[in-house]
Amino acid sequence: MLLETVSSPERLRALPESDLPALAAEIRSALIGTVTRTGGHLGPNLGVVELTIALHRVFESPQDPIIWDTGHQAYVHKMLTGRASLDGLRQAGGLSGYPSRAESPHDVVENSHASTSLSYLDGMARALVLTGQGERTAVAVIGDGALTGGMCWEALNNIAAAPERPVVVVLNDNGRSYAPTVGAVGNHLAALAGGSGRSVFEQLGMAYIGPVDGHDVPAVEAALRKARDLRMPTVVHCLTRKGYGFPAAEDDEFEKMHTISPSGSAAGETWTDVFASEMLAIGEQRPDVVALTAAMPGPTGLRAFADRWPSRFVDVGIAEQHAVTCAAGLATGGLHPVVCVYATFLNRAFDQVLMDVGLHGLPVTFVLDRAGVTGSDGPSHHGMWDLTLLGTVPGMRVAAPRDGDALRAELREAVAHDGPSAVRFPKADVGPALAALDRIGTADVLRRGSSVLIVAVGACAGAACAAADELCRDGIAATVVDPRWLLPVDSALVAAAAGYDLVVTVEDNGGHGGYGDVFTRALRAAGVATPLRTVALAQRFLPHGSRGAILTEHGLDGPGIAATVRSAVL
Ligand SMILES: Cc1ncc(C[n+]2csc(CCOP(=O)(O)OP(=O)(O)O)c2C)c(N)n1
Description:
binds thiamine diphosphate; 570 residues; Rossmann fold; 16% strand; 39% helix; 6-stranded mixed sheet; 3 domains; alpha/beta; globular; 7-stranded mixed sheet; single chain
């Protein structure tokens, strides 16, 4: 096995060129074997096997830093930098699914939110010059999808204006984000790939080399050497095939092979499935409802809506900021946009939510999938910031459904509202329905007991009910409520809190500025002195691991919530 002997980039550089096809084949079959078992980014990594081999033969990482945009395509890089077996990929304690500075000096950037690489590149190239290492070359590898993000163009505006400062931008063009890459940038790259037109990069003042067959190692190596030796900002345009060598991933009509689930994982009805079907029903009844995604029509559940009403669907590219302000424009024009993004990616567009939508009080619905603990994607992907951010936006309403029926109802309330709303739900199966026994104001009462009030956010309701049942056996009587709408805080629920010995809030957001903080403030403002405990995610960057184990670690399962109650009442 060649791969076992390639324990470092130096060893890779020492291999004769004639060994490289066999090495690429070994890497590809190891990727397929591992990733179909562990889950992870199969298609993107199969597409960069040759590209990564060539990069590590031409540049001397880490002295020549290699920045992977997003970082989901860095498995091959890991394999060639001392991590050939991808040990424990995406499992707790094992290798991260993204570059990780704790794992290797070859891993430089681990943020995993797209389109930042060229800004890092600009900064690192400036730093090389300022620290007397101007003979080194900073390199970024960026996909055609990530190149649709606005930050890239802010960076190019600077990079291209400094012809004396060398950088190499390796454009990994496979024509796809999750779905085929949309818009004028994608069209331009397709034209260049077909041999026509002068590249926008040259027009801005950079050098452009390509298009190069990204699966031909000697050709990519030659292009990279040339780029390295030009000593100016240079784009190397490589054409690759996402999923190359694994037919199901190459022909990925339904966007299923960009990230795959671990083998044997159950396929129940997910929150996304419920949202997708309700969006179709709403679309049927409300011709004014339009849907937006930032390059993720499949994963956000909008594919069926897009197929049914193509003119009422917008894929903006990986451009969350633009998605939100475009939605503001649509709402100003009399429509009701539904912006569907993963909770963690809404961070990108905070100012747009605050000023462009919030300040104008516009009727825009934000659907935040993957809110809370996402699991195997790690710190950049846990959706634990949204309640904190949205809580600062005046007039923003936020719902967290506890089950599928609640998701349908709260989504309908959001699109019926003449102002901004958000509906958040996790990456999980939707679970059984939790019937309401009663109501307090707008909150649903799920368990009744006289001493403790547990206020459970969204999908935490099941664990809160389990805790109440456990406490009941110990003689502690707990009420569990689902507030339905977290913001604004319901005054009836605040008043009801006065009648209990203890209030416990439970949420899968970071503790800082989460629902617990908001509810505490509401109690204080109303002069309610009932003691309050919050159960929330620690305000830290949480590593990857299984969703269940992370929730347990943070006291967000039934026994954990019961333990918090016991420690406060005993
Ligand atoms: C800000 C942000 N939005 C969305 C995503 C989700 N996402 C991860 S990879 C990806 C597609 C990337 O496409 P491309 O850059 O072309 O790389 P490829 O996977 O095709 O190699 C998207 C949308 C993200 N990581 N960051």
